[in-house]
Every structure is written in C-alpha cells, then in structure tokens.
Amino acid sequence: MKILHTSDWHLGHTLYNYDRSVEQMAMLLQMVSIVKEQKPDVFMLCGDVYHTPQPSATVQTMFTNALAEIRDANPGMTIVATAGNHDSGTKHEIFRTPWMALKVFTVGSINANQKEDMIIEIPGKGYVIAVPYANERNMPKGLFQELLDIVAEKNKDNLPVVMTAHTTVRGCDFAGHEKASEYTVGGIDSYDLDEMGDGYDYLALGHIHHGQFIHSGKHNVRYCGAPIPVSFDENYVHSVSIVEIVKHGEKPTVKEIEIEPHRPLVTLPTEGVAKWEDVKALLQNYPNDIEAYIRLNVEVDDFLPVEANAEAQLICEDKKCRFCVINSHRVKNNQREAKVMSVQEFKTEEPIGIAERYAEDLGIEFDDDMKEMFNETLAALKDEERM
Q1: Separation of CA 30 from chain center
Q2: 48, 114: one domain
Q3: pTM for the full model?
C-alpha cells in the first residue's frame, strides 16, 4: 500500500493581516502534481485542514475544489481526511455521505458506539484507522487498541494497517510551536507512545508542524509536518511524506517530498540580532523582486525608535516583500533598574513599545503571536472610535 501522508494545511491562515490564499493555492497545486506523479493508493490528511473552526465560504470552496482536483489526479485513490484541533468536527462531516461515493472519507468526531466508522478498508491494499482529534475528556480510554483489535480480526490476508491521530506524542520535536513543552503543544496534552496501542504498521500523525519520526525503535511513527509554515519560527523544510508498506508486519519505507514555498518567511538578520541601523540596511538591500514575508530582529538598549515600523513599511513599498513585525531584543543587564518613563516619552512611544516594556517588567516574553493579537485588538479599537 502506497500512502501520501499530509496534515496541518491551516487553510484561511493570515499572517499579520496579510491574506495567504495565493500561497495556499500554490501549495494545493503542488499536492495535485505530487499525486499525479506518485499515484498513491491512499491520500491521508491528518487534521487541521482549516486554521479556524469557522472558515469563510471562500476558504471552504478552496478546500473542496482542491479535494476534487486531487481526486481527479488519481481517480482510483482513496482519500481520508480527519479533523484536527483547529477544525470543527461537525462541519468536517457535513458532506460525509456524498463524498463517500467518490471514495473520500471525512471523519470529524469520535462516536464510541460507531467505531467502525473510523475503519476504512482499501480493498486488496490494506486498512486505515482514521482517528480525528478529541480532547482528553472525549477520548474513550483504550480506543486506539480497540480499533486495532477490530482490524486484526478483519485482516485475514495480512494486509498493511495504518492508523492516524492528530495529537502530541511525547518525545517529539516541537520547534516552531509557541508555549510548548514535553507535556502540552498547541493546547493538546501529550500521549506516551504506548498509549497509542500496538498492531499498526505505520502511525500517521498530525499537529506538529516539523516533519519527523518518533523514535519508537520501529521507524514507523511519523509526523509528516505542515506543507507551509504558519510562523517565522518554523524555519525548516516543509514537505509531505510518501509511505510504502508491502504487508502487515513489515517496516515501511518513507521519503519526503519538499513543498516549495510560494512566499517564504524570512528573518533579518538570518542569525541573532543587530542594531536598528544595521537591520534597516539589511532590509534596504533585500532584493526588490523576491516575494517574502519579513521579520526584523533588532537589539535595543531601551526602546525601539518610534519611527522604526513606519520606516520599515516605507522601505518595503517598492519591493515585493511584505514587512510584518519587528522583534525587539533588549540588552540584558544583570542589575537592570526599572526606568520610569516621562510623560513626554509616554506620549511619543508606540503603543506596542509600551506593551513590550510592560511584558518585560512582568517577565513575560512578548512573542509574535502576542504582538499580532495586540495589533489586531488595537486596530479593532480604532475602528470602534471611528464609528
């Protein structure tokens, strides 16, 4: 059985209020090309199809059109798509019945009384156990092993068995995920691999954006990773995984196929931080014809110059790159004294600069997600004032 393993498309995701639909369409077209070339028996999308549980009609149309094109690229293929923690399980299953006629199986939620709905037989090829995301309270204890046992009873011909899950497995590399730890990533508590049961030939995981094997000793547990980055900290290759399994009990072979970024996420300087004037020079020298999102890492003694964001925006006006954010990194002194701002300083300081200083005094990292949330809230307040 040959499988294309992908996850975490996050369709509808915006970056610092920039629309990313063109990049997402470019990624989907690459998916179609890969399916045409590789001709897998199964196309598995393991959760986080969308970035939010309430995607717009435009984003939903993008997904359904892409799914139709992917199917047309290899009509004999079976498609399995499960819901992730960013998706609405209910919305995921709205068109479950008509899709099934086209060999497209969508699994949005877990029904302990209808476990068979999560088992998809690929005639003559193998079995897929499609487990969507469920929080700890709604995940029946021992479910993974129960499903594997049901398949073991059915699998008289010793065909390959693949299981999906959208979760965090302990021991994974969660680089690029904010506020992550060994026990929780992206708000999802982690499982020990032993809790995932025994009896699968390949465990296809979603949720972690960095493609990787989990070291189980069997080389058969893998996060395929996201096909495009959703944050600047995801500074690694994004890809899909092609998995081949000859028969049940045999080790799978896996290869990665890189997804070329339509508009990469670039941090200047590429390593470390630099003073504002040096970073500004890097931005000025960035090629005019390269499409990219730009983050600037600036070292400051106290505050970023008030005009810094406006200057960065102005520099990018005649370039194809999009300026997103400045990350300020204050020089840390072992005996730093809290500085009292004068009224004049307070009046001239950018709101985000004040917020950053406040966060620092509290010992909180003012990361990219917090900056984006702050800017969105500030924009909403300004809109309300205009009304």
Answers
A1: 17
A2: yes
A3: 0.82
